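User: Run a structure prediction on this.
Assistant: Running it now.
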Amino acid sequence: MKAVVRSLVLATALMLSARTQAADVICYGCSQQSADWASVVKAIKVDLGLEIALDNKESGQALTQLLAESDHPVADFAYLGVTSAIKAKEAGILEPYRLKGFADMAPGLRDPDGYWTAIHSGTLGLFVNKEALGGKKVPACWSDLFKPEYRGMVGYLDPSATVVGYVGAVAVNLAIGGTVNDFDPVISYFKALQANAAIVPKQPSYARVLSGEIPILFDYDFNAYRAKYTERGKFEFVLPCEGSVVFPYVVGLIKNAPHRAQAERVLDYLLSERGQLLFGNAYLRPARPVQLPTEISAKFLPARDYRRAVAIDWEQVARVEKIFVDLYLAQIQ
């Protein structure tokens, strides 16, 4: 049996190696299932003539792989949540590159030296399967989730194990009066959710919301919009009344990238108007001030609702992540 497993692992490794060797540019963290990278890659193939190898790593997994390969890089660039990119910069595995359009961006959406640059952002809120609520009202606020009628219906990703989970913790904490140096409010909040039989997965749970297993999930707006407009069922995105945060998703050039020249062309493309519109088509909010087509922008919540979502200093938030995680593990799990 062990020999069979070893053979399967070897076969998979050889298959992945062949795929990446055939590619012009290799990205870690770029998944066909997220941010509609499948469509972006097709457009790059047509417009630039470059083949990009994708994978299914989430930000933390991509960072781990990049660290393991730092002496002999395989990837050319990485697509990461901003907190993972900050860690990658600190670990010395990224090198600065100022993408075309870099100067047009707000300071919070780019590293000042160009180690990472946002290509779109997500707003943390509630991804709701309306049919799975069984006739109950869609919650409007973070505080609604303590109500008995939502018992066993609310899920949040484990903030000690996932980037999205930590972003959710930060969003709630700031919305209910906490600060980056005071996590007591959100710890109390999670205790109250646990008392209401909260579901706490350790992996992204889009499919579990679709199935109704988790009727209400802390998640990004783009996942909720994707479900609302492309899946069967009735889904909604709620930007809670107390407020939330905007979380940038960024790209960074890998230090000593094997295909640096091609990678730079791809990165510039991602921040171009054409690239930004592609992300907009996937219900992602562009990082640059580009005008989305009316038929796309109309699918987002009104701009007045998004005023409740604030941009914050993610470098400061990244520095206190371990402090929060230790506190969470000690008091909640």
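Residues 1-19 have pLDDT under 50 and may be disordered.
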